Fold this sequence. Notes:
heterodimer, A: mainly alpha, 6 helices, B: 152 residues, mainly alpha
Amino acid sequence: MxxxxxxxxxxxxxxxxxxxxxxxxxxxxxxxxxxxxxLPPWPEGALWRWPFVAGLLIGPLLAAAVLxxxxxxxxxxxxxxxxxxxxxxxxxxxxxGGCTSGHGVCGxxxxxxxxxxxxAIFMAAAIATVFVMRHVI
Amino acid sequence: MSSSARGLWQALAGLAAGLLFGGxxxxxxxxxxxxxxxxxxxxxxxxxxxxxxxGAAVVVSFIGYRLVRRGPRPWLxxxxxxxxxxxxxxxxxxGAALFxxxxxxxxxxxxxxxxxxxxxxxxxxxxxxxxLAGLGLVRLWRAWRADQPTRP
Lengths: 137, 152
């Protein structure tokens, strides 16, 4: 089970981040919502989101230094596929009001019915997409 | 606490939470799209490690949220900001399906895509720009729809 130690550590750190944000600022650690609030017009009291995103960018650099190996890898596919995928993720998380973090972690932890439904659907859609890409096309 | 001191503490709390989140994504393997797609590929050479990431994150948040919500308010803000929508509507269903398709295509969800930006890898910036454009488009659409007169 040693292969599960880093995933469990990573998940625990993500959970601690969500708890810290709720304990200090009373906010859900939902990345799509935080990213959307970086776009103007800026909502009131949104200033904490910039240092959060700075930390999000620096965190993997620290993890790479600790592990002594690169942790970030390039996404597959050409630029057009990645533009389409990014647009789907942006429109989709905007419409559903959350992503893997907001619905999948924070919403599930709150036992929110909307988040449980959203998580089941985006997991199923992602599994179906990878199945079609790898085993059908 | 003066308002400027409170603003500084709020910024530090945001930075600490971001560092924990970005470090957690990286330790958990979520910043590698091959790991994410390997997890989603249940019919192929399945990589179950992300169950550990999601599971640990949900369990820690579940326990931590319950401890935190015993307090009357957050330490650095006047009130808890929790989503107050409860109904499952068409936007939730359609949005989750579109998001899942994009997540499967690239192996990136919003957090890992942003966290990967400093590595300057090919494709990450395109993904993030398209994602921000999509989020902005939905915000514009919501604002436009809120301005429409309601039908009798």
